[in-house]
Each structure stands twice: as structure tokens, then as C-alpha cells.
Specification:
This protein is 3% helix and 42% strand. With 492 residues, the protein is mostly beta strands. The chain has 2 domains: 399 residues, YVTN repeat-like/Quinoprotein amine dehydrogenase (Methylamine Dehydrogenase, Chain H, 7 Propeller), CATH 2.130.10.10; 79 residues, Immunoglobulin-like (Sandwich). A 5-stranded mixed β-sheet has the order 14-15-16-17-21, with no helix packed on it. Strands 18-19-20-22-26 form a 5-stranded mixed β-sheet, with no helix packed on it. A 4-stranded antiparallel β-sheet has the order 3-2-1-28. A hairpin with a 5-residue loop joins strand 31 and strand 32. About 5% of the residues have low confidence.
């Protein structure tokens, strides 16, 4: 989530003096479908301006800006089937989609030996609509994939972590920005205590991995439902990799009704871990004060704060309602929940409220517990075809509403064109910048350009070439003595 922090800086830290040139929006991605390869309900849908969407049951639904029917996406003659997890690499406009039932012969089965799944990679994801061919596709027997339920990208290290659910291990692919085809994992993380991993969250800053896992059949003698926490994630490898912490036990509620611990999101600012349990409950675990590096594995049977996503007034409770996916926008302290109505027979349950996205604000507040009215609810117009909602991702982005070109001067500097493509010009218009240091950073804080200028005279123009792999929003900083200018550069 580090990139969201930089987006927050760009939005609220810098934009106050440049508000006339951009409009802030949220882009919402949602995967749909269920554990059946023969249904047509598998899709990834997108809303480009989701921040204003708010539905009333039966009254307002919204048409997605893009709908990718997963079973109509082909890699040659191979059909993709059920994308259970998504990761959006926002800075590269790329989606990693973990599929469960994709297989070489397009066999319609849930058998993990034949319906092994894959990681399909789509570029330009913010504009895609309709059936697509993956840009790249990690798929084949060498990958050792067995129905991976999700994936997570460590963007700063270019490492993809895959909870290989029915392989009962974690597959790690390094240099994943170029990974393609039937490749061997660079590392495999395994342990007798791992169980069936479903979801991975990586805290890049401290190199820590959170893993949601469910137990296997009773005959497997697997552990209970749990969340495992590993330190030094980028170097872990081999069998019997021991976690630092296991959150498990009767108090955690992770084994309540359904033992599927679907996903988690971590807020490092207040040390809260949100866990999406495959029931009507969103669980918050307070990890303040724990020992992150114990000598052995600490087992924490913690009692969570519970937020319920069901609506008993409509007659639907924990046996009907499932919290399939969550996304925590920690900057606004808002959690987006994909909430589905359980119907083993297929199709929306007769008389049930629609499957929905429920949005809850101020979730770090301990008073937000129990039955809470969502701040907003979103229903989609093709919800009778694409349901139930599963993985979810929310992206912050900007659109230009007032182009600031050659006529706009700020603190003795004119920058144009902005938005830019390939290069832009910094023109110094007064004598405040006799000596200046220029730096440009991307959304995850990496410096991608730096220069030092001396003996600058009014009218000097410095042409800056934008690195080929830089896209989206960049932060330009110009420092000279006690003067500092911070500018947002939008790259087309």
C-alpha cells in the first residue's frame, strides 16, 4: 500500500496550490464468480468514477465502464476460468489475475490435478473492455500452480507471491515484470503448519508477509483457520519455513461457521489487521505491542473487533451472507467489502438483496463494530450475470480538467507541457534559482531523475526526458536555497 501513501501526498500534501488542473477520482475493480468452472458468472468489472456511486436496493444500479468476461479470454486455445484474485499494479496500469480452473485441455472440473489455474497478466487494464488476450501468462506444469486463490506483488522488489492453495505452499516469482509462460518458481515456501493458503498481503517497507490459510480435511490433521505472519519475506525459501506469529484459536472467530479465511489488509499506521472471513463478519485484530520477532512462533488467540456486513432486517444473516473480498484505503480509513449472497444452487437467491459492494468509513475507530450502516452501497447493472463479488481493488487517479501549459507560472518557474509525454520543459522566469537541485520520484518513492543546475539565468529552459517506464503521476521537486517548489507531473 506504499504507493497509496504517495498518492495521498500528491492529493492532499501538494495539490492545494494546483487544484485547478486536476480532478480526483476512484477506480474500482471487482472480480466476480464462484467455485464452479461451468458457470458464466466469472468476470472482472471496472467503474472509473466510483467515488460518487451510491445505490438504493432495487432502484439504482450502475453500468460498469469495463467488463472482461474471464471465460472468453483466450491464451491461444486455452480458456481462462474463474479469476479468484486480482492485484492491480497501478503505476504500470497492469493487472495480475489468479485463475483457479484454467487448464491445458479446457477440462471443466474442480480437480486441482487437472484444473490447475494460472496467473494471467493484462496491461492497460484501466481501459480494457470485453474479451481479452493476456499480455503474459504464467501457466504450465513447470509453474507447479494448483488453483492459486490470489496473488500479491512486492512492487519495489518486483516479486510476485502466489498462495498456491491446493499445492499447500507459496510460490515466488522474481523479476515478474518480465515473467511469462511455463516457468519454474524462483522460490517455494512450505511448512507443515501452513495449511491451505488463500491470500497474501506484503508490507514492502518492513519485508513482512501476512498469509490467510484454511485447514484441510480432518483426515489431513491440518491446523485450524489462521493468519500467519512471516518476517524477511523476500528471502524465505524451502520446507519447514516457520512463521513468526500465528493468529489462531477459539477467540479469533476464524473457525466460525466457515473455515475459509478469505483475505486480509494491514494498516501499519495503527497496527490494525483487517481479516475478511467467509461469513458475515469483518474482523479487526489489534497488533499493537506484540513481539514481531519472537525466538519461536508466537501463537496469538486474539479477540477481534467485529463489523457485520449482513442485514438481519431483510432476513439474511451469517448463514446467507459472505464477505468475499476487502480493500482498505488507509488514507481515508475506508474499507470496501464485496458482499455476496450464498446460493449453492447457482444464481442470485430468490428474494435476496443484490450482491453488492458495501463501503464503511472511519473503520479504525473502535466504536465501529457490530451492525453498522454502510456509508455507500454499489450494485452493478449486469449483476444477474456476473456475481457474486469476490476480489476488489480501489485505485486513486486524476483527470485533467484545466490544462496548465505555457501561461502558468508558479514561484518563478513555468513547467510545460503538463500532462507530458516523453519530455517536458522547466523554464526559470526570475532570479530565485541561481542554483537548483531537481529530482523526480514515482508513486512508490523511487527517484527516477535527478540533476543539479548552476548559474541559472532568467529565461533558462531545461528539457527533462521522462524515463520510458514512468507512467501515471510523478512528483517533481525543485530546491534552491530556502525556496522549494513541489509539482505534480502527469505522464500520458
Amino acid at each position: 500500500m506504499k504507493k497509496l501513501f504517495y498518492l495521498w501526498l500528491l492529493t492532499f500534501g501538494f495539490i492545494h496550490s494546483y487544484a485547478q488542473d486536476t480532478t480526483y477520482h476512484q477506480r474500482l475493480y471487482l472480480g466476480t464468480g464462484e467455485y464452479s468452472p461451468s458457470q458464466d458468472w466469472h468476470a472482472v468489472i471496472r467503474f472509473d468514477k466510483s467515488e460518487g456511486l451510491n445505490s438504493e436496493p432495487g432502484a439504482i444500479t450502475y453500468t460498469p465502464d469495463g467488463t472482461i468476461p474471464v471465460q472468453q479470454c483466450l491464451d491461444g486455445s486455452v480458456i481462462l476460468n474463474f479469476g479468484h484474485g486480482i492485484y492491480i499494479d497501478e503505476s504500470n496500469d497492469r493487472m495480475y489475475l489468479s485463475t483457479l480452473f484454467t487448464n491445458q485441455n479446457n477440462v471443466v472440473t474442480t480437480n486441482s490435478d487437472t484444473a490447475v489455474g494460472s496467473i494471467a497478466i493484462f496491461d492497460n487494464i484501466s481501459t480494457l473492455d470485453g474479451p481479452q488476450v493476456p499480455t503474459r501468462h504464467i501457466f504450465g506444469s513447470n509453474t507447479q500452480l494448483k488453483q492459486p486463490h490470489s496473488c500479491w506483488l512486492d512492487e519495489s522488489r518486483d516479486i510476485l507471491y502466489v498462495p498456491n492453495t491446493f499445492g499447500k505452499n507459496i510460490l515466488v516469482f522474481e523479476n515478474v515484470s518480465a515473467a511469462d509462460g511455463d516457468i519454474v518458481p524462483d522460490r517455494i515456501i512450505d511448512s507443515d503448519s501452513l495449511g491451505y493458503p488463500l491470500y497474501i498481503y506484503i508490507d514492502e517497507t518492513v519485508d513482512r508477509m501476512f498469509v490467510c490459510a484454511m485447514p484441510g480435511p480432518p483426515t489431513d490433521n491440518e491446523p485450524n483457520s489462521q493468519v500467519l505472519i512471516y518476517n524477511n519475506a523476500s528471502t524465505l525459501n524451502g520446507n519447514n519455513v516457520v512463521p513468526a506469529i500465528r493468529i489462531t484459536g477459539a477467540n479469533t472467530r476464524l473457525d466460525l461457521i466457515n473455515k475459509t479465511v478469505h483475505n486480509c489488509q494491514w494498516n501499519p499506521n495503527n497496527q490494525l489487521l483487517a481479516v475478511g472471513h467467509h461469513t458475515n463478519e469483518l474482523l479487526f485484530f489489534d497488533l499493537n505491542g506484540i513481539n514481531w520477532s519472537p525466538a519461536g512462533t508466537d501463537i496469538l488467540d486474539l479477540t477481534p473487533r467485529v463489523l457485520r456486513v449482513d442485514d438481519p432486517a431483510l432476513g439474511f444473516d451469517s448463514t446467507d451472507v459472505n464477505l468475499y473480498g476487502i480493500f482498505w484505503d488507509i488514507n481515508s480509513d475506508t474499507i470496501y467489502c464485496s458482499v455476496g449472497i450464498d446460493n449453492p444452487g447457482g444464481g442470485p437467491m430468490s428474494g435476496s438483496p443484490p450482491n453488492s459492494i458495501k463501503i464503511y468509513g472511519n473503520v479504525s475507530n473502535s466504536a465501529v463494530s457490530g451492525l453498522v450502516q454502510p456509508s455507500r452501497i454499489i450494485y452493478w447493472s449486469n449483476g444477474n450475470t456476473y456475481y457474486p463479488p469476490q476480489p476488489i481493488w480501489v485505485q486513486q487517479y486524476y483527470t485533467v480538467t484545466n490544462d496548465i501549459q505555457e501561461n502558468y507560472v508558479e514561484n518563478g518557474v513555468r513547467i510545460y507541457p503538463n500532462p507530458a509525454s516523453g519530455e517536458f520543459v522547466i523554464e526559470f522566469t526570475d532570479e530565485n534559482y541561481e542554483h537548483a537541485i531537481i529530482s523526480i520520484t514515482n508513486l512508490i518513492g523511487q527517484t527516477i531523475y535527478s540533476a543539479e543546475l548552476r548559474k541559472i539565468k532568467p529565461g533558462h529552459k531545461e528539457t527533462v526526458s521522462i524515463p520510458a517506464n514512468a507512467t501515471g503521476i510523478l512528483c517533481l521537486m525543485i530546491s534552491s536555497g530556502h525556496t522549494q517548489l513541489v509539482k505534480k507531473i502527469i505522464v500520458n
